[in-house]
Amino acid sequence: MASTSDIRKGLCIRYNHDIYKIVEFLHVKPGKGPAFVRTKLKSVTTGKVIDNTFSAGHKIDDVRVETHTFQYLYNDGDTFHFMNTQDYNQITLQKTALDAPDLLKEGENVKILINSEDNAPLSVEMPASVILEVTHTEPGVKGNTATNATKPATVETGARVNVPLFINEGDKIKVETEKGSYMERIKE
After folding, report:
1. Do the Cβ atoms of 35 and 28 come closer than 8 Å?
2. Which of 18, 62, 99, 136 supports an S-S bond with 154, CB 3.0-4.6 Å?
3. In sequence order, what are the beta bridge partners of 49?
4. Which residue in 103, 71, 74 sits closest to 175, CA to CA?
5. 90 and 57 fall within a common domain
6. Into how many domains does the chain fold?
7. Do 158 and 141 reside in the same domain of the chain?
8. CB–CB of 138/105 below 8 Å?
9. Residue 152 domain boundaries
């Protein structure tokens, strides 16, 4: 049993007969009244995100998890296949268990949280950023750069990312996985 002071991003808890992963949290101490913790919880079984508020000191049922490194192999529809980099065992996960499945490139290493009690995979933690090649984008117009303008681009995984006008097809870009946004161009 843990309490609200143990809440952190990525913590898995048992709540309402399901297992949820904490996506966001905020400790709030109002000037009047008791403190509380506002959280955003993502169900590891359905992928549904809910908002919940815990009062300070509330007991929460945390789930013991182990983190293992897996390599993404391929997907067929909504089923994604991963291989453990230690013992080469393969597992399959549904698309709902992934935070940003459209940014996952074959061969990418990810961390998978596994329930210690029944060895069931709970969720996939993507790296903070991924490097992807731009496969399609419209050419930028010269002289249009004064306003920090962006244009849509399709990357090799099929995801669409807004990029600055100077990015061309074939360029490699770094994409932040949490927001799915452009970070920088990678020079080769």
Report:
1. yes
2. 136
3. 42
4. 103
5. no
6. 3
7. yes
8. no
9. 129-186
Q: Which amino acid is at 42?
A: K
CATH code of the domain covering residue 69: 2.40.50.140
- Residue 11's CB: how many other CB atoms inside 10 A? 19
Place of tokens 């994409």: 175
| Count, residues in the chain | 188
Judgement on whether residues 119 and 135 belong to the same structural domain of the protein: no
pLDDT in tens, 45-73: 777 889 989 888 888 888 888 888 999 99
| 80-117 residue pLDDT tens | 899 998 888 888 888 877 878 888 888 889 988 888 88
Where b means 16+ CB within 10 Å and e means fewer, 48-66 reads: eeeeeebeeeeebebbebe
- The beta strands (E) that lie in the chain are given as 2-3, 12-15, 18-28, 36-43, 49-55, 59-62, 65-76, 79-84, 90-94, 109-115, 121-125, 129-137, 150-155, 160-164, 172-176, 181-186
The residues, ordered by sequence, that sit 6+ positions from 31 with a Cβ below 8 Å of its Cβ are: none
